[in-house]
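Weekly structure sync, notes
Attendees: PL (lead), two postdocs, one rotation student
Agenda item 3: pending single-chain targets
PL asked that the sequence for the first pending target be pasted directly into the notes so everyone works from the same version. It is reproduced below exactly as submitted, 325 residues in total.
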Amino acid sequence: MKKSVQISVLVITIVVTLFVFAGMWFLRPGVPNEILEEARARQIQPLMEVTPPQRSVQVEPANRSDAQLAKELLPTLQKELEPLLKASITKDLKQDAQFIQALSQVLKPGLLEQMRNEMSVEFTQTKQTFNALLNAELASLRQERSAYVVEMEDRERVLQEDLALLRAEGLSEISRIEDSFIDLRSEGLLLYTDVQEQIAQAKEEVTSYVPQVVDSMLAQVTEQVVQQIEANKDEYIAYLKQTLPLGLQEQEVLAMYEAYRLDLVKDLVPAMLDSMEEELRSEVVAYLDSLPFVIVPPAPKTPIAVVRVLTTEPVVTTEPVVTAE
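Predicted structure, written out during the meeting:
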């Protein structure tokens, strides 16, 4: 038999013994105190001097059974003896390390199982409570979500209707703009064609005045050429003296100069006028191209002819010398 079992049996035996002793103590025959004092006094006296008792003690037989008496006395015994026994036994057991260890080994599985059961019950209750709260919260969220979904669906439907209306209006506006653009493009092409024709006509009309302007400058150009030739007269005569055969007199050289001066003017003036006409025509065309369509350009100014006569070597011919009369 294990030591822990022996200790348990010993404790149980002690407790039972104490309860039995207490029961016997309370179940002893009841005797009044006067009779006890008298009995003690009689024990002290010599036997020859003992007188018979004044009255006989009559003990009433107990009619109650032991079981009934024990049942009646058990609450009183428990109330009086249980605290004392518990304190004494607890003190002794606390001081016994082996008993504590053995008791812990015996009670540990049961306590663990009880703790598991309690924790399982508590966990089940907590889980049920949490599930109930979670289900209530989920139901509330589902209800809110349903209301939000309905609201969003209404908004989306209104938005789709607005978008469809805007799309229809946009398509109508685009069609109208395209039609307007086509009309404007047609009008623009017609206008551009008219403008180009007017520009071409204006260019042609303006450039037609160039020869007239150049012709009007004939006298001015001729005069300037003659002036330039006369200004370089001495240089021409000196050049002729050097290039012509020796033996010519100054009068003969002057006569030759006078004879060829008119021919020289006739050769220079047409070429200069043609050059001026081309230059003036190019400037007029460039000026017309640079003008905007909506602004009426000012009338071009009449250019001032500037004649530059280069001092080139005169052409000497083998014509016979004409003497001055």
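Discussion points:
- The chain has a mean pLDDT of 73.
- Residues 210-325 form one domain.
Action: rotation student to compare against the earlier draft before next sync.
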